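Before the break, one more example. Copy the sequence into your notebook; we will annotate it together after we see the structure.
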Amino acid sequence: METYNIGTRVVSITTQVNEGIKLGEQIVSEKLASNVNIIDRIKNITLLGNKIKKKDHVLLIFKTSCKNIPLLIEKINKSFFRDKPEITVLDIEAGIISRE
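Here is what the structure looks like once it is written out:
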């Protein structure tokens, strides 16, 4: 196995899998990301007041380049009509890719 610089990931969360799929297709077709991984049914547990609230979320992980980050974040922000999205940018300096 070799170690590679494997780039930048932008991570966001939505509550609807169909919304995540639609957004992922738009972003990949516009070449703002080379791919998107969509992970359904992430469990979110939040304390609101004195009550625990549980909700399913959908995790979106976009593989992109540094130059595309501003446009990608703008696109994600515009696609969420109900909520202000949570967006995290991860710069992955090294990783291992298994080439079999």
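The chain has a mean pLDDT of 87. The CA atoms of residues 29 and 35 lie 9 Å apart. Try to locate both features in your own notes.
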